[in-house]
Amino acid sequence: MLYLLALLLHRLPLAMGQYDICKSWVTTDDGPSWEFYACQPKAMRMKDYVTVRVDPAGITCGDPPERFCTHENPYLCSDECDASNPDLAHPPKLMFDSEDEGLATYWQSVTWRRYPEPLLANITLSWNKSIELTDDIVITFEYGRPTIMMLEKSLDNGRTWHPYQYYADDCMEAFSMPARRVRDLSTTSANRVLCTEEYSRWVGSKKEKTVRFEVRDRFAIFAGPDLKNMDNLYTRLESAKGLKDFFTVTDLRMRLLRPALGGTYVQRENLYKYFYAVSNIEVTGRCKCNLHANLCTFKEGSLQCECEHNTTGQDCGKCKKNFRSRSWRAGSYLPLPNGSPNACAAAGSAFGNCECYGHSNRCSYIDFLNVVTCVSCKHNTRGQHCQHCRLGFYRNSSAELDDENVCIECNCNQIGSLHDRCNETGYCECKEGATGPKCDDCLPNYYWRQGCFPNVCDEELLLCQNGGTCYQNQRCVCPVGFKGVLCQQSRCEVDKKDCDGAPSARAGLGTVLLGVLVLQLRGFVDL
Ligand SMILES: *[C@@H]1O[C@H](CO)[C@@H](O)[C@H](O)[C@H]1NC(C)=O
Ligand SMILES: *[C@@H]1O[C@H](CO)[C@@H](O)[C@H](O)[C@H]1NC(C)=O
Ligand SMILES: *[C@@H]1O[C@H](CO)[C@@H](O)[C@H](O)[C@H]1NC(C)=O
Ligand SMILES: *[C@@H]1O[C@H](CO)[C@@H](O)[C@H](O)[C@H]1NC(C)=O
Ligand SMILES: *[C@@H]1O[C@H](CO)[C@@H](O)[C@H](O)[C@H]1NC(C)=O
Ligand SMILES: [Ca+2]
Hints:
Helix content is about 10%, strand content about 30%. The strands form 14 sheets. Strands 3, 4, 8, 10, 11, 12, 14 and 16 form an 8-stranded mixed beta sheet that branches. Strands 7-15-9-13 form a 4-stranded antiparallel beta sheet, with no helix packed on it. It is a lipid-anchor; GPI-anchor.
């Protein structure tokens, strides 16, 4: 019986649960072999793998010890927060522990004793791994929910942040946004960022403690109220632009902007009842493995997909070495119900012996040459195996042949270079007088003006004579009475009327000869 069951499970791997299995050993007419399927890891409690950071410094209560009150009992301020006493401390880690029955443990901020300066706190959760949310984010506040807060997300390990949802007791006043509910969104607006008033109003601190980011309600737009029609959701995730990314995060940030007020205005005489206290942050999701892994493990402090289908990387986002005969692709939920693995293929297996180093998905047989060649090489490559760089590009010496960055644009200066091609180290061929790898500089004794031109004058050999000054190496600005390229010529030699007995006499033939000599020395004048 057990044997039969095992056999059944082997034969029907996909009946167990959608996209649970990456491969299965099957027997075909040609003998046993592996069959591959699109697969994804199970959803997990992501708070177990998170790194938390609370800002600004000093926002956590208890240093120095502080008393606080509650909205129920505003004048009985007997509670104390003391960071140095484990029983009275409220460090950030208490947002992620598992609550024992009854007693909530929580992170708590300092009180709003600096009112009217706003009481601001950021709670940043980082996974160093892309996560796909599969259920609501639920944040539990003790002593009342914030009257204004914002949820932000990052998709690139905290380099850039985007608003995810706004929360306020009055959305118009706090964010100039109309209040909306996720339940009212439609198929075309399922990834809209909105402001909700559902989780910010005062309803008595004990009654409603949670603030949600509603993932299920958004899924339900496609999959129906009980998420029964997951096939429809998967189809939409695959096809609707940006929808999958909307549910993907590497980091989340709660920006707490104003604490609970107990249903009234801020009472300045008792600021000790205003603070934030978070007992739990529940984030349910799965590692994003691009449908190439069904396991995700915690290794060296980070989550990591156990990649199948000859893929590799933290998210199985590329093909393993020697498995790059075609470009990497994510696995697909389609076609329903089992999807496609889109596995990476070993070099040489795609089409006879045609390796394209991952720059092309297609090979073509050229009859009269009797060769198989890659078609439409991407990433600026060319050649039978996409093994060369296109003209105007050169080989990136720190990249392997199958790297997307293998070819770098030459970027030759259009004016300074002879053409837009370069040698293997990226050097362009320069016109006379130009230099530098890209030919955008001039050799010494040349100046740049839509290209490089030899200096007419300078401060060394081509000195302007007779008190003339050299203007940007392009010409001498001569004093009255002198002319010529280097002001070497007295006007009175040309026109006797100009003579006024000035020093011009001294700047006679000698200077002219010197100027010509210099020009000749430098090869500019052929005598
Ligand atoms: C919270 O983070 C935002 C950026 O997301 C930043 O502009 C703000 O200054 C931070 N606030 C605090 C109190 O650190
Ligand atoms: C993030 O994950 C990558 C890949 O697993 C790892 O190399 C890196 O050290 C991690 N960074 C941090 C800050 O944990
Ligand atoms: C990955 O490569 C191994 C070794 O060549 C091979 O046995 C296996 O079938 C490949 N898997 C896929 C999904 O192509
Ligand atoms: C060369 O390739 C390496 C490895 O992929 C990449 O990090 C680098 O950015 C590339 N250089 C340029 C100039 O594109
Ligand atoms: C490319 O040209 C530069 C400048 O002429 C030269 O220094 C370099 O050696 C050349 N590189 C190769 C690989 O020929
Ligand atoms: Ca807790």
